[in-house]
């Protein structure tokens, strides 16, 4: 596999790392990748681990929730979207939503980020039940995802 960015050819993984590091939180234009004899061109965002690692959380009903991190999404083969249930607490535990679930919707609202999660919860009246869409993953004893 080889890649070309802004006209410079990189044939090894470490090539061009300095240039990419300077472009963090911008877009890498004209990235051309050749794989299996086919040439593909992309424009892609350049992220860093601080940008894609959750740095805030919400406590609600004795539970703890944060954005799904890149590392967790990669482990579960999911896009980086949804809110991770770090601890279900009383409210989500009573609804049988286990630790490690990913909340994708509350009521009629889609939940892609922690801000979406907060907005959806703020409009739920006290003592009112609403449907919560979530996914869970079974983890095998060897640590793999089923």
CA(first)-CA(last) distance: 31 Å
pLDDT < 50 stretches: none
Tally of individual helices: 5
Q: What's the domain count?
A: 2
Order of helices and strands: EEHEEHEEHEHEEHE
Look up the CATH topology of the largest domain.
Pdz3 Domain
Write a structural description:
- By secondary structure, the chain is α+β, with helices and mostly antiparallel strands.
- The chain has two domains: 2-46, no CATH class; 51-135, Roll (Pdz3 Domain).
- It has helices spanning 17-22, 49-52, 70-75, 89-94, 114-122, and strands spanning 2-5, 8-10, 27-35, 38-45, 58-60, 63-67, 83-87, 102-106, 109-110, 132-135.
- The strands form two sheets. Strands 5, 6, 7, 8, 9 and 10 form a six-stranded antiparallel beta sheet that branches.
- A hairpin with a 2-residue loop joins strand 5 (58-60) and strand 6.
- It starts with a strand and ends in an 11-residue tail after the last strand.
Task: List strands and helices in order, with pairings.
Blueprint: E1 2-5, E2 8-10, H1 17-22, E3 27-35, E4 38-45, H2 49-52, E5 58-60, E6 63-67, H3 70-75, E7 83-87, H4 89-94, E8 102-106, E9 109-110, H5 114-122, E10 132-135
Antiparallel strand pairs: 1-2, 1-3, 3-4, 5-6, 6-7, 7-8, 8-9, 8-10
Task: Provide a compact summary of the structure.
The protein is α+β, with helices and mostly antiparallel strands and 146 residues long. Helices cover 21% and strands 33% of the residues.
Q: Could you list some keywords that capture this structure?
A:
single chain; 146 residues; alpha+beta; Pdz3 Domain; 2 domains; six-stranded antiparallel sheet; four-stranded antiparallel sheet; 21% helix; 33% strand
